[in-house]
Amino acid sequence: MVSFPEKAEDILVKKSSPRLAPQPALIPKKFKKDGQISSSVESILPPAQNRPPSILSSTQPDSLIAQRRTEHGTPLESGIIPTIVKNEREILFEILTEKLPYMTDREKEIAIENLLKLPPGAKRNAFLKVFLIKHKKYAKLDPILVKNQLDEKITWFIENSSKNLKGTIGFFDPFQLIENMSFKDVKYLLDKLNRTDESNLIEELILKFYEGIQSRFNNSSELGNKFGNPINYLIDFLYSDPNFMQYFEKCDVISKHELMDIFADFCADKQINVHDLSTADRFPWDLYLSKKNATNKSGIAVFLRGHEILDNYQEAIEKLNSGAEYCNWIFFITTPLGVLEIGLDKLIQDMEEIGAWVYIVDRLRGIIYGLLKGDDSSKKMRKKENELKNNLNFPLRRLDPQKQFSKYIFDKKFQYKPKNYRIFGVNEYFYRDLDLEFIERDRNNLQYLLFLHKTKGMSLNFVKWATKSLDPDLISGLISAIDSFGSTFKESKGLQEIQYGGFNITFVEGKYIKACLFLKETPSPRLKELLVFAVTRWESLFEKEIKNFSGSLQPFTKKSPEADRLLNQIFLGDYPRFKVDDVIRILPLPI
Prior knowledge:
Restriction Endonuclease; single chain; disordered C terminus; five-stranded antiparallel sheet; 42% helix; disordered N terminus; 4 domains; 16 strands; alpha/beta; seven-stranded mixed sheet
């Protein structure tokens, strides 16, 4: 059994600087000590007969040291060519440069320092041998190399699934989902395959996972018959596990107000006027659209996000049907999660039956997909059309042919070709950071978020976005203030606002908790929506802990990192994004 210095196996990863491209085998001046004679140079390598050919790869086992022991200096005027004898440090540097070419100079120095701390002889020989064997795979950790290997593996999946995927685009790309997973969840994927890997490079873990899926699919005729192609198997592996649902739901972390704003910008670029109907009690739709041209067409739009679609889908169809009596067109807008929840085939069938236009807003990629092109309504009544027009407010956008309103890309390649869309499949568009201007204003408005137990009044979760801490006395007084508003929560549909302690505080009451959102200014409609959404998601995350609550906060503290990530994701959009132009990242240890 070889004895290692502390953390010797992790020298390269845990103490390394950012990885660079392969460096030429040059010896820094600090390693050159002219005139010094190496003591026991041969002792730093294992006996010739025991040297693994995969490491030293030489037909003459001793040639590596023999060639590196001396080098020729610059010829003198006398014609004599001096011989420079290199010391052990210098030779070790050369060996590491040749055998582990992707190490930086700093990493080599660290490795050499650890080698030289060991006494000469068998212990140092054994350590060097094991060190080279273990870190021979270090070349695999080169970012460019790993990226190329990942590309090759993904290409294999696509080529072996091309019969089903040719000419299609998927709302959920399994490869992009995996690339955006946390280190912890990628490790979990490997564990599910009964594979282990000690790498701290997340891309190498992903590569190992793809290799595992590939191996399972190739070696099982049962999987081949059941799924047909490896991408279908990969998708099922992810979607069938509730632990990964959070990655499917990320595309749905969007307020209805934000969704309407995105679509209003899209319409403005097409010179279509948009009016807000969401606050009009008289009409059940969200937007009214009108296009001033020779035909003077108009339409109404209904929006549903994925997390609310199952409960409200039938009602939405009824709203669209009734809207056909007031205008020429009816529009239904949802998110990729909405398609996933309803089912693509059912959505297409239902919307074709009523002649609706259908658009899918993908906030993670900044894309609007045109799924269905609707029909002109045959039910429109002039009286109802005029009734609606006479009750419109000012348009949300002032049309300007010279101005580009939308930051979103409209997918023209597949537009209005429903057979070209898939719920799961390869997507040629990549995730990108894209926020509307009012979102930044909302972020700057955020101060604190407090979750209280509904009946016991204890603080269960607290998020601090402001730079200053919140006064405990203010929180104590706030709880009393909340109690005084308790009877009005239901009357205001769960929302209430007060001015308290210099903050604008918005309340919402959930099934188990009361939430208090501290703001600098009056909340936007978007922030109000997000607060309601946050309470629903938080209660779902902690439902078991709340039902079994006995006064101890330990169960909530234990899951507080997970809760903080959820709430930051909802209010800040704070989660990792994969950018195709990035150099593959070396991520930290799992948290």
